[in-house]
Amino acid sequence: MLEGTNVVLLATLVVWIALFVYLWQVDKRVSRLSREVETLHRGERKEPHP
Amino acid sequence: MGKGARLFLGLWMALLIVVSYRVPMMREGFMDPEGYRIVFYHVPAAWTMGLALLLAGIFGGLYLATRKPRWDLHAATAVELGFLFGMVATVTGSIFSRNQWGAFWNWDPRQTSILALLLLYLAYLALRASVEEEERRARFSAVYTLVAVVPMLFLFAFMPRMTPSLHPEKAPLITGSQWLVLLGMWLGYLGLYAWLHRLRVTAFACEAQVLSLRWQREE
Questions:
Q1: How confident is the model over B141-158, as pLDDT tens digits?
Q2: How far does A42 lie from chain B, in Å, by closest CA?
Q3: Interchain CB distance below 8 Å, A41 and B212
Q4: Assembly ipTM
Q5: N or C: which end of chain A has fewer CB atoms below 10 A?
Q6: Whole-number Å distance between alpha carbons of B200 and B194
């Protein structure tokens, strides 16, 4: 195994972990936002804005 | 996608990344045999792009048949993600090209066809951005994704095989265990695609609900 290949392997793993953590955070935010918008939407339908 | 599935995807991809750099590669006929490992990232990206654009056509057809706005969101998401995976395939392909053929871009039939494919779907994104009225935008977009399946399949699967090319086509230079790594990696890409697709559709739906709330308030 060449030294350079190990470096590229590590770099690829770091990129994947960074992407994975970022996506996990985006998923959390989007899910929360979706729940909040849904709640607002339901409230608005029940009580129309004056 | 549930928490467990996401965790599994994270670990699966990490495992496949390690294996992709450990599996023995052929050394004959390559200027840079180690660099050929990029095939494990390039090919699944291209396959995922093809699948996403095919799905976009199917979702477009479903919209035209049912007129349900959710199919329009799915189609737009599939095109966006197909474009994204297409970019990954193009960039990794260019790196392969630089290592094996000496230049990032050779106007090889495969490189030319993927460029034409990306431009075809860039035009779709421009079309969506240019039509304001929701129903018209959905209708035009659906017709576009459905019709674009024909040139997409031609550019993706047939055109590069009809002309002499440097790109490995009929006899892929991978064998045995390398195929397993390639297919495993594609499964990982499909999982990633499914996750991104769900996220984007949820974001699209949020946007639509926020717009609807804004209109209600303005009324």
A1: 999 999 999 999 999 888
A2: 10
A3: yes
A4: 0.78
A5: C
A6: 10
